Structure formats: structure tokens, C-alpha cells
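Model: Ready when you are.
Researcher: Fold this.
Model:
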Amino acid sequence: MAAPLPRDPIADAQRNWEQHGWQDVAAPMAAITAIMRTQQILLARIESVLKPFGLTFARYELLALLSFTRSGALPMNKASALLQVHPTSVTNAVDRLQDAGLVVRSPHPTDGRTTLIELTAAGRTRAKSATAVLNSEVFGQSGFAAGDVDQLVRILGNFRRDAGDFSD
């Protein structure tokens, strides 16, 4: 990891926006930019924890999703919808996970047009092990103050709902 910068470049950018006459959008620009940088930091932490498991976050999310189902299987289109990613991304993740022996594709028992993604025993074990380490090293040490977490979840949830990500 690189050494910390001596000043916050996002705060500098906000001042630059204000000095250029964009005061009305300077704070939202800084907030959005801070969210984007925070996402980069968190993803880097997550990816470093998952690397020893041979997983990316996208592949881990699919394994975790499957592990939460009763049967350990979901139609590919449902997995795509629940993960909120393009079907091509799910196909790519399934290809990699299948190559690693963590999932298998199978025909849907009643809908011949649908393919199921099924978690293998190895996939279930890998999901469980990776989750334990993520919980310990990332989610349990998020870097956010305990009192801020609920506010963040509320604020970002409201934004996502208002953006059409989901409906209550």
C-alpha cells in the first residue's frame, strides 16, 4: 500500500470546485468522489482476503448467494437479478467456479429453457471458509465507527431505493 498523502485530495478538489464557481455542486461532488474512493479501498481489502481462496468478490458473492438457498441451487437468471449484475457476468463467474469444481450447471427439472447453478460440496466449504475470514478481517474490522454504520446503511439504502435499485 502506498504511503498516505499529506492532504485529502478530495477536500482539495472540493475547494477547487468552489473556487471555480461551482459551489452548489462542490459538496455533492466531494461526497460522490469519496464514496467511489471508499469503494476502491474496500474492494482491495476484500480481494486480498479472497485471493488465497482463489476467489474474486464477484465469484464469492455467487457462492455465498447459493449457500444461502435451501437447495444450494438457483436459476442463472435469478442469480443475475439477485446479484444485480448482467447475465454475462454471472456466466463468466459460473464458468470460473465450475472450472474450480465449486459449482455445476444442471438443467432445471421443470423448465427446459432454464439452467440451474448448483453449489458443490467443495463450493459450500469454500464459501463457508471465505465468509469466516471476510467476517473476521473485513466486515468485523470495517474501519467505520459503530455509530456510523447504521447511518451509512440508511443513507445509502435511501439513495439506492430512490435510484430505482429496489422498492419497499
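Researcher: Now this one.
Model:
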Amino acid sequence: MEELVVLVNHEDQVLGLMEKQQAHINGLLHRAFSVFIFNEKGEMLLQKRAKKKYHSPGKWTNAVCSHPRNGETYLEGANRRLYEELGIKAELLEKFHFIYKANVGDSLWEHELDHVFTGVYNLDFNLNADEVEEIRFISLEDLEAEIAQHPEQFTEWFKIILEEYKHNL
């Protein structure tokens, strides 16, 4: 099934739909969401992207990043992808939204109006192997040290969104 993204302007007004990979090739602004999941200790959940992903395979990133479907709210999309990728349901709160553009390699761009959600989860996961290779929880302090030492092991958008998150705490 062809996956479409919702193209928007800077005011989040819909301009049309485009196949996801083509939007990433063209670097066109589209709707997206990012989910940060924490455990009861305040550690952040990271997922390692499956090796068969068409961009940024095998890199660490936040719990979920994806795109709402046409007619789907940002929150509905975030809840859908939490379940599709990690097999979980969590109460999510929107923290902020912002626009960023990042080169993710192989002539692909993420140019997104990104709505960032947070949630807390402490139970079991049911990982979708097509999406996620592995998961782990990490303290923000240890995460920052790891990113400083090995930035190439993390997705470009995650590094940007994490900085934005810290400024919006």
C-alpha cells in the first residue's frame, strides 16, 4: 500500500498529498509527530530502527516518529503508530510543535511540521520487527553523553527534536 503524507504550509494548512518517499526526496513540508515515552524512573525510551527501513536504518531514535494519515489528527496518528511499532497504548500529552528540516542522507530530507507528544509507560512491549530492531530506556544525562560521543548512531531528526524538547521543558 502506498503511504502518503499530508503536505502543508507553515500555518498547517493542507496543500495536498504526496507519496512519502517522494516528499522526502523533494524535501517538502509535511505533517509529522514524534513521541517521547518515559518510564517511572524518568528514563527515555529509545528504539533502534529496523535495518530494512529505507532511510536511517539501524539508528537509535525516540519511541515513535511518523506521519498522520489524511483525515487523522496528530494524536490519533501518534497512538496508532505506538501500537503498530511497539505494541503499546499510553496516554499522550502534546508538549509543543515546531518546523525543522534535516538531511537524513541518500539525498533524502525530513522537512516536517512536527507535533511532539510525551507519555509514561512501564509494562511490556510487543515490537514490530519490520519497524523496530530493539528498544532500551536511558537517562537523559546518559543519552546526551552518548549522542556527544557517537552522533552517527542516532537519527538526525531525533537530535534536533531532543534539543527542542529540552528548550520546551
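Researcher: Key takeaway?
Model: The chain has one domain: 4-167.
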